[in-house]
């Protein structure tokens, strides 16, 4: 494991402290309201689990699974819904939880999709954001960390479906995805 990592970008204690900080802001903003938090599978699983436990406002949890497809392996902005919400969000306060905003294409599509269902409100909470990778402007209410445009893993984030279970955010050593 150690040899696959080039460095720890955000250690576990900083990550957990940030989640608690975001939860405190969310508690304040949604006081007296029922909140539906929506996790985007699979990357948002850790953030959802930790955030939900740190919140004091009453929450329901739901999940969406989406897949970007198109020419490359990276997000194309054309999104297919693999698993839709179980919840009717009309009139509900919705908070979408993500592990990372990279190009922003996934969330840009998702926000349009969710807004068309007439929720009372819909906001975004993301653990990470890469300002240098963004392709489409997105209005994000809660951001954990702005990070450099590097390949990051851990805390839900994968490389080829691995490393999601790391409790911290790290960057992958080039030999893992490069030659030799
Ligand atoms: C990753 C990440 C975000 C999205 C961000 O998900 O979890 O959902 O990409 O990229 P974007 O801002 O460029 O659209 P991925 O599609 O890898 O699926 P996963 O969550 O199952 O890993
Ligand atoms: Mn994802
Ligand atoms: Mg992924």
TrEMBL record:
One of its GO terms (molecular function) is hypoxanthine phosphoribosyltransferase activity. The keyword Nucleotide-binding applies. Its cofactor is Mg(2+). CDD domains: PRTases_typeI (cd06223). Residues 14-159 form the Phosphoribosyltransferase domain. InterPro entries: HGPRT, Hxn_phspho_trans, PRTase-like, PRTase_dom. Its main location: cytoplasm. It is found in: Cytoplasm. Pfam families: Pribosyltran. One of its GO terms (cellular component) is cytosol. This is Hypoxanthine phosphoribosyltransferase. The lineage of its organism: Bacteria, Bacillati, Actinomycetota, Actinomycetes, Streptosporangiales.
């Amino acid at each position: 494991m150690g040899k696959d990592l080039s460095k720890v970008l955000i250690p576990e204690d900083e990550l957990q402290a940030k989640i608690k900080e975001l939860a405190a802001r969310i508690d304040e903003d949604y006081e007296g309201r029922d909140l539906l938090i929506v996790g985007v599978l699979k990357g948002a699983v850790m953030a959802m689990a930790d955030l939900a436990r740190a919140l004091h406002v009453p929450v329901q949890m739901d999940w969406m699974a989406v897949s970007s497809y198109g020419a490359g392996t990276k997000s194309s902005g054309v999104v297919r819904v693999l698993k839709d919400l179980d919840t009717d969000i009309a009139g509900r306060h919705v908070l979408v939880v993500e592990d990372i905003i990279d190009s922003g294409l996934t969330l840009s599509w998702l926000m349009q999709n969710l807004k068309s269902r007439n929720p009372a409100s819909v906001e975004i909470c993301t653990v990470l954001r890469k300002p240098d990778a963004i392709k489409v402007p997105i209005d994000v209410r809660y951001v954990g960390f702005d990070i450099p445009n590097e390949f990051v893993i851990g805390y839900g984030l994968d490389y080829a479906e691995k490393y999601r279970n790391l409790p911290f955010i790290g960057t992958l050593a080039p030999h893992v995805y490069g030659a030799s």
